[in-house]
Amino acid sequence: xSETIFxxxxxxxxxxxxxxxxxxxxxxxxxxxLSPGHTLVVPKEPAATLDALSEESAAAVGRVLPRxxxxxxxxxxxxxxxxxxNNGVAAHQAVPHVHFHVIPKPGDAxxxxxxxxxxxxxxxxxxxxxxxxxxxLAKG
Length: 140
Ligand code: 5GP
Fold this sequence. Notes:
Elements: H1 5-10, E1 18-21, E2 25-29, E3 39-43, H2 55-76, E4 81-84, E5 100-104, H3 123-138
Antiparallel strand pairs: 1-2, 2-3, 3-5, 4-5
The structure holds guanosine-5'-monophosphate.
């Protein structure tokens, strides 16, 4: 787990607009917001991607996400929002330290735009894929 700019923000070496902090979590405003209030919720543990994060840090982030979302929406007077979490360069992750974007979606062009090229799940493919995932989960 190598250090990123987020570790330096968490440690106060780089300034940020902090909105929340506890023993395991740090949240601050995104420097390039998609909409006003765009917030990053970051575990202090410097795991690069979600699958590498400890259950303790994941639980700590999950516990506080709804509260931070409520606060951001109240502060921005917004009702709708997206929570985005990118993993890997192909999935648009620029900073390899797990983070959740909380992005208010005002009723205009601001906020997250989503390209959603939906396919169709065929029964046989679904059966095979579900069995494969269940088998992986059984490994622990
Ligand atoms: P990703 O594409 O990795 O999911 O998102 C990384 C986010 O971190 C981007 O939205 C980017 O604007 C934000 N970011 C990158 N560097 C800094 C910084 O130094 N300060 C703050 N506040 N946000 C940053």
